[in-house]
């Protein structure tokens, strides 16, 4: 089942067909919402703010919301900034509109970096299944990806392997 958005504002967002980002106007609106929730007025969202926003705007479970926050807050700083928020919104809008495969291909390196939570330079099955729902990928599909694209058989998807997967994803 594809990722669901429950916020009318997020549902109204559309990604540019070529770049798969939001246009300037939509980005401005998103920034206004970000600022509105930014109660500490420091440009940062902590996990509580992010949780509240995600709970109101998506159908994600608590566990998944926390996982998404951890994925964005890689250095464990305890907060995210607008640019990270923007990326995850674009990703969720893509998934909601079933454009996740195009998004993976268009933003392959960024998706790879997002999934590689421990900066090891490759994606483990645990990392992939932990956040795969953002790309509408279920565990079963992810295990299949590992079977097909983990060419060197080290149970990790490295950048080269990921690129092949991203290119092939669209033709599936
Ligand atoms: Ca990794
Ligand atoms: Ca591999």
How would you portray this structure in words?
With about 170 residues, the chain is mostly helical. The protein folds into two domains: about 100 residues, Recoverin, domain 1 (Orthogonal Bundle); about 70 residues, Orthogonal Bundle (Recoverin, domain 1), CATH 1.10.238. Helix content is about 60%, strand content about 5%. The strands form two sheets. The protein has a two-stranded antiparallel sheet. Helix 3 crosses helix 4 and helix 6 crosses helix 7. The site of one calcium ion has 7 residues, from strand 4. The site of one calcium ion has 7 residues, from strand 3.
Question: In the CATH hierarchy, what is the class of the largest domain?
Answer: Mainly Alpha
> Portion of residues in helices?
55-70%
- The CATH homologous superfamily of the largest domain is named EF-hand
What is the correct CATH architecture of the largest domain?
Orthogonal Bundle
Largest sheet: 2 strands, antiparallel
Shape: globular
As for the CATH topology of the largest domain, it is: Recoverin, domain 1
Into how many domains do the coordinates divide? 2
Order of helices and strands: HHEHHEHHHEHHEH
Rg for CA atoms: 16 Å
Distance between the termini: 17 Å
Task: Kindly name the structural category.
Answer: mainly alpha
Mean pLDDT rating: 96
Work out the number of β strands: 4
Taking strands numbered 1, 2, ... along the chain, how are they ordered across the largest sheet?
Answer: 1-2
Name the poorly predicted regions. none
Count of helical segments? 10
Distinct ligands, ions and cofactors found in the model: calcium ion
Residue share in β-strands: 5-15%
Protein name: EF-hand calcium-binding domain-containing protein 9
Domain EF-hand: 137-172
Pfam family, one: EF-hand_7
GO molecular function: calcium ion binding; calcium ion sensor activity
């Amino acid at each position: 089942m594809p990722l669901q958005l429950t916020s009318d504002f997020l549902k109204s967002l559309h990604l540019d067909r070529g770049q798969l980002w939001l246009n300037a106007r939509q980005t401005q609106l998103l920034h206004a919402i970000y600022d509105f929730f930014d109660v500490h007025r420091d440009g940062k969202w902590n996990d509580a703010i992010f949780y509240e926003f995600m709970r109101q705007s998506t159908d994600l479970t608590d566990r998944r919301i926390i996982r998404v926050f951890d994925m964005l807050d890689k250095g464990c700083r305890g907060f995210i900034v607008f640019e990270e928020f923007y990326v995850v919104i674009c990703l969720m809008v893509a998934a909601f509109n079933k454009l996740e495969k195009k998004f993976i291909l268009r933003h392959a390196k960024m998706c790879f970096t997002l999934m590689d939570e421990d900066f090891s330079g490759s994606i483990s099955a645990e990392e992939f299944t932990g956040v795969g729902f953002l790309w509408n990928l279920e565990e079963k599909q992810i295990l299949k990806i590992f079977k097909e694209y983990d060419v060197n058989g080290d149970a990790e998807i490295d950048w080269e392997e990921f690129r092949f997967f991203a290119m092939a994803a669209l033709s599936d």
